[in-house]
Amino acid sequence: MAPNRPFPVDPVLTAIAIGYSNPAQSLIADQVLPRMPVGQETFKWTEYPLAEAFTLPDNRVGRRGQVNQIEFTGEERESSVEDFGLDTPIPYSDITAAAAARAGKLSAYDPEAHSTEWLTKINELLREVRVANLIQDPSIYAAERQVQLSGASQLSDYENSDPIGVLLAAVEGTLIFRANKLAMGQPTWAVIRRHPKLINAVKGGLTTEGLIRREQLADLLEIQEVLVGEAYVNTAKPGQTATMARAWGKSIAALYIDPAPGPNDITFGFTAQFGTKIAGRIEDKDIGLEGGVRIREGERVKELVVAKDVGYLIEDVVA
Question: CATH for 29-49+76-315?
């Protein structure tokens, strides 16, 4: 009986291989919480009190009086990156058989390259889910900067809802720094892009049919970007029939994001990254009869919300 390998060795094999995965453009984690390199696994940043930059002291100076003095304070925050990675084992017999098939022009399959590619995809999807869960968590937003829609106020009610009012309230509702990005899931976007009131606001006249583009909504709200997460994730337990769901739910987050924040810049959040992504092979003598290798891919990152007041969350946007 031929070994049950994870690839076919067949002289009639075509150059086509079908493998489902999330396209790169469906993932928005790196745009929602941009990566920022840190020099060590443990890192710090300083948080300054809100009042200090906006309190107005008396700055009048008498002819012989002393200049009024004010003092600036700051609280040091600390966090550390976490290690995220996955391995997959490959017997040497699989590597040898695949090499022979490639040499005979029967296959283009390289088990090590394939494993590295798919480990990377899975790790990226896991990061997407972490970021989606974080951004859609009401507990990280200030109470006055979140709203939950229901019934006629939900934007799936095309007749009664007020999409421009709801979205502008979120964009304008952040503290000091007006939101410059909206982040939402594809099912939500699919509903609101058909909203007659948004179509009319974009196209004018009596037009209420058709679709709007992300760029048009961004222009209408005077923000930089509308981000739409399209990723699917299997919510079933290993071994069970796949149950596919979207990583991003029915919320919309209005966020002020600085793509490259400096020491004194404000941004809703970022991803601290120590070093670069790693990928490589580790010899493992306990795989199969002849031994094999473990392919490993991973990274050291930490997703953080550091200025919750420049974010606003709309929950249950659509029914």
Answer: 3.90.1690.10
